[in-house]
Amino acid sequence: MGEYEHRLHELEGEANYFPPPPRHPGGRERLHIQKSSVCSRAYFVVVMAFFHLYIINIIALLLYVHYNTGSGEQDIPLENSASAPRPMPAEHRIPSSASLSPELSFQLPRLEGIRVGHVQRVSLVLDRTHNMRTLSLKPLLFEIPGFLSVEESSVVMQLAQLKGLTHSSLLTAPDSQEEHLTQDQLFSLLDLNQDGLLQREEILSLSHSTDGSWLSSYNLRKIHTGLETNPSGVLSLQEFKRVSGGVLQYSTAGQGLDGHAKVRQRSTHTRLYLGEGTHHLLKSIRNRVTRLTRLPSSLVDLSEPMEVVRYEQGGYSHAHHDSGPTNHDSSCAHTHLVANNSASKQVACRYLTALLHLNSADGGGETSFPVADNRTYEEEVLGDLSQQYCDKGNLKVKPVAGTALLWYNHLSDGNGWVGELDEFSLHGDCLVTRGFKWTGSVWVNIDPEQQRQERYQRLVSWHPDGQSKKPEHGDLHQDL
Ligand SMILES: *[C@@H]1O[C@H](CO)[C@@H](O)[C@H](O)[C@H]1NC(C)=O
Ligand SMILES: *[C@@H]1O[C@H](CO)[C@@H](O)[C@H](O)[C@H]1NC(C)=O
């Protein structure tokens, strides 16, 4: 008790002593300094705390920017290492498909058209932005001038010529073509990145290129099984011959896609693979399409190779849809192997089309959307879809080198997935009256049946040899 009182007294004394009423100016000044130094210390601590937070924020922001542009700059190191050993595509696929979280795969981003004539800025490459103009809402159609530079467009045309263009009319008889292919030729056709090995992606991508009718699904399944059981996970030419020997039955009945190759007249075409191991510009085109569409990169990466078409003078294409309706007796060409059903018809399931105009034709050659934004759609009214629709067409786009058109061939199903075919996406290429017209078509293949698309993506990214990668896929498997 006494002790307590004593302590209290002491404290009182201190308290009395500490803020004493100022007696003379000198004391006041001294006390003022003391007080303000106490104040400024607290102030200093607060300021320092905020300063540290600020610095941490800046560092976090810098790291964020670094890693974000890091992924965007992927093109640049790859550009320099065009002659360097090719990375295994499989290794690159794993992160992208593993990062395809269920939420992502359930919700496909879809661009907004707002209204016809609306212009939005899009970021496709590091050093500039592009304008994207809405051309129509039915179908949802955009125009992106300068998607490729004029020089880049001519590089694509040169690459197509190097690869070799074949007459589109040949495609109407895929059966006869197949019989003339030797195993070596077939291997070379399958080996999209020309690295002398067949990767899983290459075998599976064949099944969804419209002109890839060299193999029946029976043969394809055999070869795929051979690849799965091969410890290295890839097939060399020798292994391919061993696996495919005796199974190449050339039974093409019911194979191939209806009508697609027949729509073009006086044209030649080729396919350019956009994945690993190809020219950096082609990989960059794939990246730009990914950025433009905002779709998960795994979907774009797994899509069919770009088709480059060269129309001669007098060349045109009939009005057609790039994608097809899927129902019970048809399945998507790209997921056909996974579907494992008896559906006799295969249709190309192309959620969207990015059509690149590679040159400015001297005369004619407009890309026409005859029913764009029409109130109703009746094919009969259009009459002969081969030619007349060009004069009647609601919307015609003159080819300008480097300009891209992007449109959705399917509506949304309302739950963020691919819905029905958008009939208004009907389009064709008008008669080239003078010179040539070059186009490049990039399609993103998505199965309207979501589970099938997911199974397909798991199949493509699954590696029997990669024991270390198994856990990731175990997780993915659980997630999906
Ligand atoms: C495909 O389906 C058949 C029966 O419909 C089944 O026996 C077979 O195992 C299936 N194959 C695969 C790879 O799922
Ligand atoms: C376009 O719309 C008009 C008016 O609604 C209609 O008369 C015409 O048949 C439509 N054209 C087509 C090709 O459906």
Automatic annotation (TrEMBL):
Domain Fe2OG dioxygenase positions = 302-446
CC per GO annotation: endoplasmic reticulum
Q: Name one GO molecular function term.
A: iron ion binding
Keywords from the UniProt entry: Calcium, Dioxygenase, Iron, Membrane, Metal-binding, Oxidoreductase, Transmembrane, Transmembrane helix, Vitamin C
| Essential cofactor(s) | L-ascorbate
State if Isomerase is listed as a keyword: no
Which spans are transmembrane here? Answer: 42-67
InterPro entries, alphabetically? Answer: EF-hand-dom_pair, EF_Hand_1_Ca_BS, Oxoglu/Fe-dep_dioxygenase_dom, P4HA-like, Pro_4_hyd_alph, Pro_4_hyd_alph_FE2OG_OXY
Among PANTHER family, the record links this protein to: PROLYL 4-HYDROXYLASE ALPHA SUBUNIT, TRANSMEMBRANE PROLYL 4-HYDROXYLASE
Protein name as annotated:
Transmembrane prolyl 4-hydroxylase-like
Say which species the protein is native to.
Sinocyclocheilus anshuiensis
